[in-house]
Amino acid sequence: MIRVLNSESMEIRSSEDVVTVRQAVRRKAVSLGFGLVDQTKVVTASSELARNTLDHGGGGTVHVEILENERRTGIRLIFEDQGPGIADIPRALTDGYTTGGGMGLGLGGSKRLSHEFDITSEPGAGTRVCMVRWK
Ligand SMILES: Nc1ncnc2c1ncn2[C@@H]1O[C@H](COP(=O)(O)OP(=O)(O)O)[C@@H](O)[C@H]1O
Ligand SMILES: [Mg+2]
User: Can you tell me which atom of ligand 1 is nearest the CA of 95?
Assistant: First the structure.
């Protein structure tokens, strides 16, 4: 059974907000005792996903949650926007695929940096990306 120990929501409306999300995720990872490598993994993923929320989703929100199950603690990040959505999720996850002139590595990279990763999206209505990194 998963328990949510703490939850915080942050707006993502600007590049400064992306930096603030990064810093908040770093702080929480440190407070949970994540090692440097694991901190970097969750912080990098958070930064890529926040950037996507801003650049592709037109801005949105992230919920940062501290989780605990029987064996370990973790961080869950839920990014939500009401942008154009993603019509073909497997294609969006493919390395090198971009609609925005980026590198096209953010979504697939974030998935590889996560223990659990889930995208739900409705074209025209928005996107929700949920990731968990356990300690
Ligand atoms: N929140 C989002 N809303 C709409 N489309 C998205 C979102 N996140 C990702 N995408 C789509 O998935 C593609 C791949 O994302 P990503 O791998 O991060 O590459 P990049 O951001 O460099 O384009 C994006 O180009 C975009 O088409
Ligand atoms: Mg990206």
Answer: 17
Residue pLDDT, tens place only, 69-78? 999 999 999 9
- Number of the ligand closest to the Cα of 128: 1
As a whole number of angstroms, the distance between CA 122 and CA 84 comes to: 8
Helix 36-55 crosses helix 15-31 at what angle (to 10 degrees)?
150
Model's pTM, two decimal places?
A: 0.97
> What is the Cβ-side half-sphere exposure of residue 59, based on CA atoms within 13 angstroms?
8
pLDDT digits (tens, 9 = 90+) for 40-87: 999 999 999 999 999 999 999 999 999 999 999 999 999 999 999 999
Q: Which atom of ligand 1 sits closest to the CA of residue 102?
A: 22
Residue in this structure with the two tokens 């990731």, named with its chain if needed: 131
Task: Tell me how far the alpha carbon of residue 103 lies from the centroid of ligand 1, in angstroms.
Answer: 10
Residue 53 and residue 60 in contact, taking contact as beta carbons nearer than 8 Å: yes
**84 C-beta closer than 6 A to ligand 1:** yes
